[in-house]
Specification:
Elements lengths: L1 H19 L3 H17 L1 H8 L5 H12 L5 H12 L6 H16 L1 E8 L5 H15 L2 E8 L6 E6 L2 E6 H14 L1
Parallel strand pairs: 1-2
Antiparallel strand pairs: 1-3, 3-4
Helix pairs in contact: 1-2, 1-6, 2-3, 2-6, 4-5
């Protein structure tokens, strides 16, 4: 709980800085690069979160890895996280930054689960329909679940739209059992 509060504070700080510089998407891209590197290289995360490693060693590694790839302010933010021993909450900071950015830009993220990957046409139609329903620009995150049999399940925030065959069969079963 304390870590999430810390993550919110740091995410809000970098978000406000990005807004002041009118570079929200650039900051988001830089944080996404760092996040992706964190995911692709768990050794990096382990090293940066290790309390036995000297902060100066961590900083020099960050400068070497990200020095030319991210904005100076983002690198300084990462160095601050090292100084404050907060790198263990970087993933949460990154996720919260994305949420804040999406809210500011009027983007709704829809988690779409389907059996097979959606075609570009299906994605475009789904984004258009969801955009009309939400009144926002919609960004899709795709997931796979072979147990759905067919159709899609869409989740936007706390709304869930189940258009899957599995969902329809479950509804029919519940209706038959009720009678």
């Amino acid at each position: 709980m304390l870590n999430m509060e810390l993550a919110r504070k740091y995410a809000r700080a970098i978000f406000e800085l990005a807004c002041e510089e009118n570079a929200l998407s650039a900051y988001g891209n830089d944080l996404a690069k760092v996040q992706q590197t964190y995911v692709d290289c768990p050794e990096l995360k382990a090293y940066l979160c290790n309390p036995n490693v000297q902060p100066e060693d961590k900083k020099s590694l960050l400068k070497e890895v990200f020095g030319d790839d991210v904005r100076e302010m983002v690198l300084n933010f990462l160095l601050l996280l090292i100084d404050k021993r907060r790198m263990m909450v970087f993933e949460a900071i990154s996720a919260i930054f994305v949420q804040l950015s999406n809210e500011k830009l009027g983007i709704a993220v829809a988690d779409v689960t389907s059996v097979e990957p959606l075609s570009d046409t299906q994605k475009a139609e789904l984004m258009e329909k969801l955009g009309r329903v939400t009144g926002k620009e919609v960004s899709l995150r795709e997931h796979r679940d072979p147990s759905l049999i067919g159709g899609v399940v869409v989740r936007i925030g706390d709304r869930r739209i189940d258009g899957s065959i599995k969902g329809r069969l479950a509804a029919m079963t519940a209706e038959l059992m009720a009678n």
